Structures are given as structure tokens and as C-alpha cells.
Amino acid sequence: MANIHQFEVIVVGGGGAGLMAGLYASKTAKTAIISKMYPTRSHTGAAQGGISAALGNYEEDKPEWHMYDTVKGSDYLGDQDAIEFMTNEAIDAVLELEHMGLPFDRTPEGRISQRPFGGHTNNETGKPVRRAAHAADRTGHMILQTLYQQCIKNKVNFFDEFQVLDFIMTDGKAAGVVAVELSTGELHTFHAKSVIFATGGYGRVFEVTSNAYAYTGDGPAILLRKGIPLEDMEFFQFHPTGIYKLGILITEGARGEGAVLINGKGERFMPKYAPTVKDLASRDVVSRAIYTEIKEGRGVDGKNYVYLDIRPETVNKIAAEDGRTNPDGSPLRITGEVVLQKIPDIVDFCRVYLGVDPVTQLMPVQPTAHYAMGGIPTNKFGEVVVDDKGTIVPGLFAAGECACVSVHGANRLGTNSLLDIVVFGKHAGLKAAEYAASAEFAKMPEDAESASRSEFDALRGGAGNANVYDLSNEMKNVMFADVGIYRNEKDMQSALEKVRELQKRFKDVKVGDTGKIFNTELLNAWELGNLLDIAEVVAASALNRKESRGGHSREDFPDRDDANWLKHTLITKKNGKLEISYKPVVITKHQPKPRIY
Amino acid sequence: MEVTVKIFRYNPEQDKRGHYETYKVEADENDRVLDVLELIKGHTDGSLAFRRSCAHGVCGSDAMRINGRNHLACKTLIRDVGANITIEPLLGLKVAKDLIVDMDPFFDNYKKMLPYMINDSPLPADGKERLQSPEQRARFDESTKCIMCAACTTSCPSFWASDEYYGPAAIIAAHRFIFDSRDEGASERLQVLSETDGVARCHTAFNCTNACPRDIHITQAIGEVKLAMVTGKLD
Ligand SMILES: Cc1cc2nc3c(=O)[nH]c(=O)nc-3n(C[C@H](O)[C@H](O)[C@H](O)COP(=O)(O)OP(=O)(O)OC[C@H]3O[C@@H](n4cnc5c(N)ncnc54)[C@H](O)[C@@H]3O)c2cc1C
Ligand code: SF4
Ligand code: FES
Predict the structure, then answer these.
(1) Which of A281, A271, A123 is nearest to A597 (CA)?
(2) Fewest CB atoms within 10 Å of the CB: A169, A296, B62, B98?
(3) Residues of A with Cβ-Cβ distance to B52 under 8 angstroms
(4) Ligand nearest to the CA of A252
């Protein structure tokens, strides 16, 4: 065991949540960030539309409204204490990013510019409110860059292109992690007092997704194997507007700037489904509306897509009908130039991948698997909580998309994830350092690397009659078709069986590359193992929840059932068997009521 | 359509030097070059090594030479490059395996630019944002778009000649802060850039601007930095 490192705090993941955690933990504790990619490659950089905070830079807004919108958006499954904590911290969090140098777009007065986003409203009028602070349509890119730059300034330690394979626990306490250095294939042991997982999402279990190749759910899968539960895994968000077939995201900010959805008959259909906020309804509502249009034969050319229209003539006509105004009260009118200025990257994506110019042409879109509401259960300090009694694993933390605080409940509002990673990344970092200040290092077992070594050996020693690429496609197809936007008992049951069959066949994988240096074949295979484990718990949790709520819509149980299901799911795997238990939702200010947009 | 792909292969554990392998695959003209690489890796040769993540041109992982020019594999479609494709690693950085190059020197140059906001003045008394007009914000918008893919730096003859040269991407990072009205570190950065490895090595070959997948006007930005160095003015 030559490669042993010791840090008080180890952060696994160099995205927005991980960098923020590292930045804060390193203020008082010896900290390192381990990331399987160079941090600037993290998927936070793909986030487009904005980060929410009731700054009120254009119009009246308050954290209480932000809280209520988030609770309502979550379909009442979000924990209200955590939501209130987040929306109260939002303003300072966004201002802190500005002070760090983040180049937000500006209002004429030189303040941070804000745009409307789905589900964010003025609670008195019910009208959309400008709450999303943005830097064109690359807000996430600017957050990732700014936080990475701050880490450089503060000399945070990085282990770039190291992939964490295992979490080590001794006597129920965190002891560290095992990682492989991609450039050499060597295993490394990181002995730590606190370990923070910030590994991002797992959208790669679905066929059409806005998520990166790296979104393979490594963190949650590692912890699941350690007997730690995952929370609310049935709730996955399908974003309404992915580029047809490719899944590349077209930000909701496009609709915030006035774009509307059009079906195959050329009709605007959102007013039918959400009379007040129309195209700016919550994501689950819009995705279901698109799906319904397609199912009822109103997709484009009988295919499974509709159009998003941001052509100035359409936007201006509809803005006039809806009486939409600019911040100064004048009627909202846009030009082609405004489109180019507000969503330049989207225009670029459409031109490159579709050969379509959104200023003059329609964009073909379909819902795309986008965001994991569920994940590693934590409290608002990032401590991992394993049951309904608040029991924690000393030294183990999680933050960002891989975690479930839960502030997003059954459906996340746009721009609330960037807020989540900044707020809870920070608090996880602070708490991890605080814990490290008083805790001793837990003993690291002699053979810490043995489990990782055997996992690799198994992948190298299979019978060889299964192919990673094919297994992965089979999983994605069945999950998208049968555990997607609409779900029912029969399809989910068969999907679950299919995933289990794939898990069996996965044992026959034999990695051909026997080398050590950048053995990406081996790591892709290992990641597929994670995705299959995650797919299994997603399908099983979804099958178990017999109601429809937020992102989880069942044809056989179309209504929300607060009497029986106003509770979080916890799923664990013990001796190869899944077990489901529950924990109550924290309700403070807002009693559940029907959700109408 | 059938596509013929010739790929540079080098595995330091087995090979003394690199060689090329040719693969034939079925692809659609709207497929990304990255899709084709995935297909080859998935079905023909799993050991083929390349980096990728976002698959839509925003993370900067997969810059490589496609038919002799630097591109992101995920932002280049078969219809743009035709049915005969040659794919090679970036030039000027050490090849670690196949299409993967050692990026550490590239990131080291970035770090030398003091790439973070320098402003020790007190924050506004109300605790709110530092004000910046839309025009001041627009001044450095171009250089905020950089995804650090290294396509520019590795297409630059001055960088090939000496990897001591910081390279265009690092200068773009400096530009992003030098022209930000909130930043106070311009003179420190200009000092770094006036050293022998700094902007003087740029001979305006324009390769960088042509290579940039984010359409950043790099040569112009470098020109602005040179001008600021001479005049001491930042407008
Ligand atoms: C296209 C797109 C647009 C979006 N737009 C918005 C938006 O406008 N507003 C908003 O609020 N949200 C948006 N979201 C959601 C939001 O961007 C993400 O949820 C958030 O950025 C996730 O941040 P993170 O830090 O949790 O994960 P990431 O930024 O993905 O970071 C994960 C990190 O973990 C590392 N990692 C993973 N596994 C391992 C391992 N085994 N070992 C070591 N390291 C590992 C990776 O290298 C990476 O550094 C968007 C998402 C997408 C996909
Ligand atoms: S300037 Fe352009 S080519 Fe150079 S690293 Fe940045 S994005 Fe890549
Ligand atoms: S994979 Fe992210 S830029 Fe190509």
C-alpha cells in the first residue's frame, strides 16, 4: 500500500457543490478535492438558465414567496425547514458569487439581471416573477469557473482525474475513500475524518437525457453498496424541452424570454394545461402536457416531438395577447438580436446539431431526462441521515445533485439546483470541517483497497459474452420507455425484471483492455455497474409509490394521495435484497393543497 | 452511410511509437464524431481512449485533431467532415494514450495568469453587488466563454516551438479579468504577460481564432492585451 494520503476533509467531486464544499472546508481543515474529471469539465458547467434568489432587482420579490413556490413546486414533498433555510440564504449566496467575481448580466442600473423561470411567481398576483439571476445562457459555466478560480486563489488541493471507487467506514464512522488514478491505474487510499460526496446526477440511466456521460451515479451507488439508504429515488425530472433525439437542453430561460410551445397543428397548447402561467408552468406539468399532445396525435408529423418557437414575430404577438411587459412596464417586444444576446449558446446548439436557426425557424423538442430529485439523504448541514430518527453516519456528508436534503421534493423548480449546490455545498463544507476539528481519524483497515481490487478483477475476468455498450443501451431504452414521464404497474414491473436480467448479464462482462494507463474501458464498465444498481432502485421505488406526485406520474394512480403517501421513501440494499421504509415530510408553514398553475 | 475512420493509436505500455488504425462504421450524417468514437469503442475496440463528458460542446473534454484541424469531437458532425475521417491527438502536449494528452502543462499556464478576481477594496456598504454597467459587462463577455479545451493553444506555432509560451488560452483567461471593471489586478497580470513567455510570442498566426469552438475572437483579444501593455489603458 504505497499510495496513502491523509486529509482531514476529502471532497469527492469538483462540480459546483464539491468546489463550494472544498472552499469552505479548507478555511479551517486540511482538505482535498478528488474529481474524476478536471473540475472545469463538471456538469455544473452545462447549466444554462440561472440561479434563483429573491433579489428583487427588477420588481418586488421576497424569500417567503420563493419558499412557497419551491414547496408548491415540490408537490409538497420538500422538507419545509430545509426549503426555508435555502431560500433565506439565497440572496447572500448569489451576492457572494458576485463578490467572488461571477460576471452576471446587469440591469441598466448595474445590478444583477434576473429573468422569469417556471414556477417562480409573485404570490399575490400569481404572475411570473424575475427571480433567476443569470449570465446569458451559461450561468452554470460561470459558477463553475468562478468557484474553481477561487479554489486556485485559496490554494485548495486537487486530485484531478482520480476516480473514487469505494467509501471506507470503520465502526460506523467515515474513515476515507479509495480511488484510482486514471493516468497510472494505481489505487490510492485517502484517509480522512470527513468525506463529502458531491458526485452529481445519474441521468445516464435514461435514453434521452441532458446529462453528461459522467452522470453515472457513482456516489449514491457506492453508498448503496455500503448499506446506506437512498431517498426518493422514484422522483426524476424530465425537462420539457430537450432537442429532439439528442436530449441537449434548451433552457426554460427561452420560455422566460417569451418562447412558446406549439403542437403539430400549429396550436399553442400550454394555456389548456396551465391557464395562469401557461408555458412557464412547473416542469413536470409542461412535460406531461407535451406527452399528452403527442399521445393524442398532435405531435409534429405524427412523431414524438413538438416545437418551441422563439421567433420574434410569434413572441411579440403572444406577449401582446398575454399583456406581458418589460421590467419598466412597457410592452414586451423582442428582436432577433435580443434572442442572440439572451440565449446565444442555444442558438449555437440549434445551428450546429439541427441546422436550424431559432431566430427564423422552429426548434423540435421533446422531454429529456434531466435531474435527480432523489439521492443520498442529508439534513441541511449535509450530514448523511440514514433513518427516520435523524441518525447520522459520523464524518459522512453529501451535497449537490447526488444528495437529497430534500429541498426539491417530487419536482425541482428551475434555477433551484444551482442555488442548492452553492448553499448546501457551503454548509456541508463548514460542517465537515467542524466535525474534523474535534474528531479523531477512524482506523483505516489494512486491506482498504481489496473491495475495489475485486470489483476490477471481476470486470476483467467475466465470461466475455456480454457487451457494456449494448447492456447500457438496453437499460436506457427500457428505463426511458417504462420508468419515464408516465408510469404504470405492468411496465415498471417488466422494467425492473429487465434491469435485474441486465445485472445478471453484467457479470459476464470481460474488459478487453488489460492495461493500466487511462483504462477507460474498465472504468466505463465499472460505471455501468453503478447505473444498473441505480436503475434498479429507481424502478423499485417508483413501482412502490402508488400515487402521482410531481415528477412521478402513474396512469394507474393518477391522483396525489396525501393520506397514504405524504412521506419520503428510503430504499436500502441488504444482502442483495431491496428494503423500503419511509420518513415523514417536514411541514412548517404550508399545508398541502391542490397544485394549480 | 459507411464512414472510414483512421485513428492515431498509442499505448505506452505496449507501443514504442504511435500508429494508425482504420475502422469502418455505419453512421448517420448528423451523428457527432464523438458518437462514432463511442461506437468504435463500444463494438470494435474497447481500449480506444479519449476523454468526453457533456457531449454538446460545453465541458471542453474532447478537443482533438479531426482531418488535420482542432475540433471538439462532440461539436463536429459527420456531414461537416465527410466519410473519410482522420482523428489524432492535439499537438504540442504529450500523448498519454491514443487521443488523450497530458493537460497539466496547459492548466499550469492558466494558473499563472492569476485567474481570479483581485479586488481588495471594501464591498459596497449595503452588502449588495458591486455595480457594473451592461456596457462594462459587455467589454469582457467574449473571454468569459472559454471552456479551456486547449484547441487554440495546441494549434499555435509559437506554442509548438516552445511549451514555455503561456499560449492563447491563458491570455484569454487574463483578458477576462484585465477588462473586468471590478478587478484591480490588471497591472500584476500585464506584468506576467510582459515576460518572455508572454504575449510577445504571439505572432498573430490566427490559428487559435480559427480553432476555437466557442468562436472567441482570440487574436483580437490578445491584441487588446498587447495594446493595454503599451498604453496602460483598459478601455
Ligand atoms: C443541461 C443542464 C442545464 C441545467 N441548467 C440549470 C439551471 O439553469 N439552473 C439550475 O439551478 N440548475 C440547472 N441544472 C442542474 C444543475 O446544473 C446540476 O444539478 C448541478 O450543477 C449539479 O452540480 P453538482 O456539483 O452536484 O454536480 P457536478 O457539477 O456534475 O459535479 C460532479 C462532480 O463529481 C465528480 N465525480 C463524479 N463521480 C466521481 C467519482 N466516482 N470519483 C471522483 N469524482 C467523481 C465529477 O468529476 C464532477 O466534478 C442543469 C442541468 C443540466 C444537465
Ligand atoms: S479560447 Fe477557445 S479554443 Fe482556446 S481554450 Fe478557450 S474555448 Fe478552447
Ligand atoms: S464532450 Fe464536452 S466539450 Fe465535447
Answers:
(1) A281
(2) A296
(3) 213
(4) 1
